[in-house]
Specification:
The protein is α/β, with parallel strands linked by helices. The chain has six helices and five strands. Helices cover about 40% and strands about 20% of the residues. The protein has a five-stranded parallel sheet with strand order 3-2-1-4-5, sandwiched between helices.
Length: about 160
């Protein structure tokens, strides 16, 4: 059976930390679907379409087993539709752990199919990197080139001008 994994998140915007997890996942599984989440209760900087586009732009040399998609509602329903059985999550500092554990255990209870959550530890250089941090630096005219792909820096600056 093909091992299809889903890496879901807001990606608002995608950072080098996310890209690292994506690249490593594509080496582990037959297929990886990066699933951009649209949660009606959350306020995003970038629209769903923009976030999806930024993901595609930021991943410079996508491998053949990578797909970018988006979803609303429950991840487990999206996974069933896609035939995916593995959830990939990135784990940074201890602060991620409690939320991630809650998510993984809850997904197991509500999933209509058998799923497994796999945690990849963030690389050292990305341990404290988050989309919020990138936005905070950008708003204050700081240099974000260490944290996001150069392909999307322009889009982030343009978004700042719209604000
Ligand atoms: P969410 O809204 O689900 O938190 P994010 O886009 O912030 O969406 O994160 C998606 C996934 O990527 C989560 O599993 C998160 O822990 C992981 N992640 C975020 N930043 C990093 C990073 N710097 N290194 C590794 N994993 C990360």
């Amino acid at each position: 059976m093909e091992k299809i994994a889903v890496y879901a998140g807001s990606f608002d915007p995608i950072t080098k930390g996310h890209i690292d997890i994506i690249k490593r996942s594509t080496k582990l599984f037959d297929k990886v679907i990066v699933a951009v989440l649209n949660n009606g209760n959350k306020k995003y900087w970038f629209s769903l379409e923009e976030r999806k586009e930024l993901v595609k732009k930021a991943i410079k040399e996508p491998t053949g087993n990578l797909e970018v998609d988006s979803f609303e509602g429950l991840l487990v329903n999206f996974m069933e539709k896609k035939g995916a059985t593995i959830v990939v999550r990135g784990l940074r500092a201890v602060s991620d752990y409690e939320y991630e554990l809650q998510l993984a255990l809850t997904n197991n209870v509500i999933a209509p199919i058998e799923i497994e959550t796999v945690f990849l530890t963030a690389s050292r250089e990305n341990l404290y990197l988050s989309s919020s941090l990138v936005k905070e630096i950008a708003v204050n005219n700081g240099d974000i080139s260490e944290f996001v792909s150069e392909e999307i820096i322009e889009a982030i600056k343009n978004k700042l001008n719209d604000k």
